[in-house]
Amino acid sequence: MHSKMKGKNLISPYLYIGHACNNNCLFCSEADSKFPKKTLGQIKKEILSVRKKYNFINFMGREPTLREDFFSILEFARSKKFKKIGITTNGRLLSYPGFAKKVLISGVNQIGITLNGATPKTHDFLTQVPGSFEQTLQGIKNIVRYKTKNQSLLINFPLNKVNALELNRYLAMIEKLKIKETNILHVAPLSRGSEKKGMIIQMRKGGNIAFNSAKIYIKENRMKILLVEFLPCSLEKKARKYFFPCLEKNPQKIRISLCKKCPYTSKCDGVLKSYIKMYGEKEFKL
Predict the structure, then answer these.
(1) pTM of this prediction?
(2) Looking at domain 2-279, which CATH architecture does it have?
(3) How many whole angstroms separate alpha carbon 232 and alpha carbon 234?
(4) Residue 97 scores a pLDDT above 80
(5) What is the tens place of the pLDDT at every residue in 183-238?
(6) CA 208, CA 223: separation in Å to the nearest integer?
(7) Continuous H helices in the chain
(8) CA 165, CA 159: separation in Å to the nearest integer?
(9) Residue 36 to residues 19, 31, 164: CA-CA distances in angstroms?
(10) Who has the most CB within 10 Å: 30, 87, 165, 285?
(11) Distance CA 214, CA 104 (A)
C-alpha cells in the first residue's frame, strides 16, 4: 500500500496482500521483491488507512486469492462500505465454480484477470506452469457466467516479445467470451527476469502493434481498450488518448528532456531508468 516517493509514504488504493503465487511468470515485476506475510490484523489496519482517503480498494500482490484468510479480508473491506472493491488475480482459483461464486457474493464488484497469451503454449511458457492457461480461461468463463451486471470484469494482457504476435487472436478470443474491457500493458523491465531484450518489447513498436490491433474494436465500440504504460510520446498521435498510466507510483521513473514540453506530464510520471538503459530515448517523440 505504501510507496516511498521523495521521502514520503504515499497511501495507495492498491493494497498488496499476497506473498506467494501459483504462477512463476518469466517477466514478473515482483519476482525480485520480498513480500513479508502480513497478518490479518496488519491488513485490516491498512484497509482503514485506505478508507480514510479512498472509496475504492483493490487487492493484489503476487496472488491474493491464495491467502487462507482471503475472504475474511474481503468481508472486512465490505464492512467499510467502499464504493468499489476489486481484486487483481491470475484467475486460476476462479476456475472452481464454488470459489468464483463466493468471490462474487463477497462484495467484490471489480475483477481484473491477467491472461499472458492466446494459446496454452504461449501462456504456459510465460507462467512456467503447464495447464495454467486452461485454468485462467475457465476462471474468466466462470466470472462471465456468474457475475451480475453491476460487477465488472477486466482482462489484462501484458504485451511482450513472446506474445505480441498473438494479440489479434487474443482480442478475437475475449470478444467471443463477451469481454467488454481489456488493458494492453507494456511489460516493464523491473526484475532480473524481465530486464532482457528478448522479453521487453520496444515501446514504440509495441504501441503500434497494440493500437493497430485495437483500433477496430475501439472505432466500432466493441470493447473498451486502454494502452497501459505505453507512454504518449511512444504512440502515434491518434493513439495517445488511449494511454493510461500505471496507478502505482514507481520511484525508478525519471523525466527525460522531452518531458519539459510534453502536454501529458500531469498524467505521465516519466520512463523507467531500466528501460532507458535498455533502449535509450530516441524513440520518444512529441
Answers:
(1) 0.92
(2) Alpha-Beta Barrel (3.20)
(3) 5
(4) yes
(5) 999 998 877 767 778 899 999 999 999 999 999 999 999 999 999 999 999 999 99
(6) 18
(7) 40-53, 70-79, 97-104, 120-127, 132-146, 167-176, 203-219, 273-279
(8) 9
(9) 6, 13, 34
(10) 87
(11) 29
